[in-house]
């Protein structure tokens, strides 16, 4: 099960994810991304500090939005990611495509660079 | 003793006792007329008479079978025929006396007594056979109490035979006591007439006729016996016997009551017949499915049964199915239906006809009158299957207010039964469909199995073993090996994102890509770059494949590998007994779908030595969870591999599987998982 909350703060659209993202629950994250893109957000930060597990289907959600975000000039950062989850991102190579930050405080600066 | 023997013996007994009775009677007559002083009382004739009656009774008990196995009119027919024959003989005796009325021969006491004895035999035969038939009828669907009562009655009859040994006089005080006792029994018994309910209209008329004729025979016998009695010369007068008169009363009473009750039941017999037909129709409906009938046949039975149950003049039924609209019409033109629909005023019926009915059924609102139409009454009922209205049934009658609430209830029952049948049919279809899907998945599973190599143990320098298990019937894990040139092999392990059928299709694509690219003798990173191009064109945007590709070169004893986002391979180095991950930069196939991809992959080359062992695996293993939700993880896998790495590939595989099962316990691994173990052995190399 996954819980997703969104929040706009200091010009950044925060998506806070907690729980597990597997084949069944990945649709919720996908919807959160779609909504953000549709409402014209240009700075998206995903809080993964409460994410315990992500399956390949969940990673597919990030993969599927990369091109679109690139085209629309939407900047995406992840932060607070747990070590085991980060490994999954890194092994797949996503770590090289997505800016992964350690702390929430870094988000605003990173996105305004 | 067999029944046949009993019948013969009782018949013989009856004949002998009658002859003895007659003889003793005539003998008595002689004694009287010649005033001989011989000690010979009335005792003997009465004894033979009793024996005769009992023998006849036993005879008919075996001759007339139980009413349950025979139909009632056949039973009554037997009484009628016996009565007819005996009456005809009795009439001819009367005829004889009428013809010779002036002759002295008929005034002779001998002649009178002789013929009287014959008549007496006939009367007894008829009365006893009728008694047995009445018994069968009375005891139809008997209760314990009734059976007991009947036994008492038979005992009383027997007792009256004994009572008759004391010379009694008709209507004398002692005689009357006996008659009253038998009469009381008769009155209670004659109201057991259950069998009449089971006769249909025609049979009832037949029954009345037969019983009426039997009554007439009885009356005729009574008159005939009385005529003889009046001659005053009878030695043995039947009318002085309590048994005979009591039996007369009983037989007569039952005949009279039967006729009356049958008569009163005549008007209701059609109702009974209709109820029986309803029950049969109902049964037909509920049995229509096991017989493998189709929906259409069930609808036809429903329409037919409903029409006959409510005496409808016309009717139609309409059902909307996936395959189209089914309509069945009786005594109407299809063009009339719209006309009738427009005449309907009741909102409920309108809703039913437009398939908009989703309320609870209110029987009083389902029937209504019609105006300005040939038909004056209408019933409409919705047909539901799996809680959805799929159609309706309409009954029409030319008479106004022809339908009552009971009729509505009957059709409701029919419709409900049909709905159950239809639901069952739908369920059967569904399960057949599921069965077919399962069959298809089984085929898919077999096809996928054939995509994995039968034999991966191809080289001289290495020994390999592999295992793959899908979470569903089919999965997205892939491993394969190909010989590029002598001593050179391409090896791959891959994992399609997601699982199930879509993953399985993409895995098949991966196999195509592997076989076309690996044979081109590319470097490992080049393989991944080209595979990424090929797969980017056919993978869904959210799908990707992780893989690690190996070039094994036996001549140079090298492995060149490139990791496309797949879990790092574990390598056991026999030199120092250590296991480490083969780390390298990499990127999953289909994630970056342009030329930039080349920046993210690299090739690494290393030399292998004897005993070095690789463990290729998919994330199904490292992400397998135990009861507390903890993952098996890379460290546990590394430790497990380290402790088994010296074994042969098949044993390594089995040991790791065992360790994994020990960790997860009862929990099934909800992902595809795959292992390939490759052990190098340079020493054997000749």
Could you explain the architecture of this structure?
The complex is a heterodimer of chains A (113) and B (686). Chain A is an alpha/beta fold. Chain A is 45% helix and 34% strand. Chain A has helices spanning 26-38, 56-71, 83-92, 94-97, 105-112, and strands at 2-9, 12-21, 43-54, 75-79, 99-101. Chain A has a five-stranded mixed β-sheet, with helices on both faces. In chain A, helix 1 (26-38) runs parallel beside helix 2. The mean pLDDT of chain A is 90. In chain B, 53% of the residues lie in helices and 15% in strands. Chain B has 19 helices and 15 strands. The relative contact order of chain B is 0.05. The mean pLDDT of chain B is 87. Chain A binds chain B through residues 23, 30, 53, 55-57, 59-61, 63-64, 66-67, 84, 87-88, 91-94, 96-97, and chain B through 495, 497-499, 541-544, 546, 565-568, 585-588, 590-593, 600, 619, 623, 631, 633-634, 671.
What can be said about this structure in brief?
With 113 residues, chain A is an alpha/beta fold. In chain A, 45% of the residues lie in helices and 34% in strands.
Sum up the structure in keywords:
heterodimer, A: 113 residues, alpha/beta, five-stranded mixed β-sheet, 5 helices, 5 strands, 45% helix, B: 686 residues, alpha+beta, five-stranded antiparallel β-sheet, 53% helix, elongated
């Amino acid at each position: 099960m996954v819980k997703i909350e969104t929040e706009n703060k200091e010009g950044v659209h925060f998506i806070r994810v907690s729980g597990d993202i597997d084949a069944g629950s990945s649709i919720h994250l996908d919807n959160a991304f779609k909504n953000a893109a549709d409402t014209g957000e240009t700075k998206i930060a995903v809080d993964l500090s409460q994410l315990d597990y992500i399956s390949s289907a969940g990673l597919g959600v990030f993969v599927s939005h990369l091109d679109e975000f690139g085209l629309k000039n939407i900047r995406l950062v992840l932060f607070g990611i747990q070590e085991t989850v980060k490994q999954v991102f890194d092994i797949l190579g996503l770590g090289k495509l997505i800016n992964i930050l350690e702390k929430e405080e870094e988000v605003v600066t990173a996105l305004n660079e | 003793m067999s029944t046949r023997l009993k019948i013969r013996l009782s018949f013989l007994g009856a004949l002998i006792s009658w002859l003895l009775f007659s003889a003793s009677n005539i003998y008595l007559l002689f004694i009287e007329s010649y005033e001989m002083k011989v000690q010979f009382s009335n005792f003997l004739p009465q004894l033979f008479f009793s024996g005769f009656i009992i023998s006849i009774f036993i005879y008919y008990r075996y001759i007339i079978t139980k009413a349950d196995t025979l139909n009632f009119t056949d039973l009554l027919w037997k009484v009628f025929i016996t009565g007819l024959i005996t009456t005809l003989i009795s009439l001819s005796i009367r005829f004889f006396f009428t013809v010779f009325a002036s002759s002295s021969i008929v005034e002779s006491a001998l002649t009178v007594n002789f013929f009287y004895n014959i008549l007496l035999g006939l009367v007894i035969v008829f009365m006893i056979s009728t008694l047995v038939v009445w018994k069968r009828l009375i005891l139809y669907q008997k209760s314990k109490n009734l059976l007991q009562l009947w036994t008492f009655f038979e005992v009383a009859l027997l007792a009256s035979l004994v009572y008759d040994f004391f010379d009694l006089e008709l209507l004398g005080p002692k005689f009357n006591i006996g008659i009253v006792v038998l009469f009381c029994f008769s009155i209670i018994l004659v109201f057991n007439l259950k069998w009449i309910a089971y006769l249909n209209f025609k049979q009832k008329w037949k029954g009345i006729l037969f019983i009426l004729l039997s009554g007439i025979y009885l009356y005729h016998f009574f008159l005939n016996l009385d005529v003889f009695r009046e001659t005053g010369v009878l030695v043995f007068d039947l009318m002085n016997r309590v048994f005979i008169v009591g039996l007369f009363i009983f037989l007569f009473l039952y005949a009279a009551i039967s006729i009356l009750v049958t008569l009163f039941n005549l008007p209701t017999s059609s109702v009974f017949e209709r109820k029986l037909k309803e029950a049969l129709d109902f049964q037909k409906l509920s049995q229509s499915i096991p017989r493998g009938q189709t929906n259409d046949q069930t609808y036809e039975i429903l329409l037919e049964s409903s029409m006959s149950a409510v005496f409808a003049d016309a009717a139609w039924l309409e059902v909307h199915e996936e395959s189209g609209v089914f309509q069945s019409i009786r005594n109407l033109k299809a063009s009339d239906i719209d006309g009738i629909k427009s005449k309907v005023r009741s909102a409920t019926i309108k809703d039913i006809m437009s398939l908009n009915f989703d309320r609870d059924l209110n029987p009083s609102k389902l029937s209504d009158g019609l105006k300005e139409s040939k038909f004056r009454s209408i019933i409409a009922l919705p047909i539901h299957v799996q809680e959805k209205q799929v159609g309706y049934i309409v009954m029409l009658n030319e008479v106004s207010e022809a339908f009552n609430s009971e009729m509505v209830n009957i059709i409701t029952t029919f419709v409900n039964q049909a709905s159950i049948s239809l639901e069952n049919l739908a369920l059967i279809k569904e399960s057949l469909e599921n069965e077919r899907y399962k069959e298809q998945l089984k085929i898919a599973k077999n096809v996928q199995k054939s995509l994995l190599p039968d034999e991966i143990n191809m080289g001289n320098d290495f020994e390999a073993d592999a295992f793959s298990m899908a979470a569903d019937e089919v999965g997205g894990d892939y491993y394969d090996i190909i010989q590029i040139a002598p001593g050179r092999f391409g090896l791959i392990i891959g994992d399609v994102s997601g699982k199930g059928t879509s993953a399985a299709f993409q895995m098949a694509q991966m196999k195509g890509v592997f076989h076309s690219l690996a044979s081109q003798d590319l470097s490992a990173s080049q393989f991944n770059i080209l595979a990424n191009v090929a797969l980017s064109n056919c993978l869904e945007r959210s799908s990707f494949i992780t893989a690690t590709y190996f070039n094994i070169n036996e001549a140079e004893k090298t492995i060149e590998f490139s990791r496309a986002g797949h879990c790092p391979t574990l390598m056991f180095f026999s030199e120092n007994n250590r296991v480490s991950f083969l780390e390298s930069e990499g990127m999953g196939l289909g994630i970056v779908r342009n030329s930039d991809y080349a920046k993210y992959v690299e090739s690494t080359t290393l030399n292998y030595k004897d005993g070095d062992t690789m463990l290729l695996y998919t994330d199904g293993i490292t992400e397998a969870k135990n009861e507390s939700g903890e993952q098996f993880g890379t460290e546990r896998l590394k430790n497990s591999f380290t402790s088994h790495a010296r074994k042969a590939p098949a044993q390594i595989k089995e040991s790791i599987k065992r360790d994994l099962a020990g960790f997860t316990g009862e929990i099934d691994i909800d992902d595809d998982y795959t292992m390939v173990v490759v052990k190098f052995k340079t020493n054997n190399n000749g």
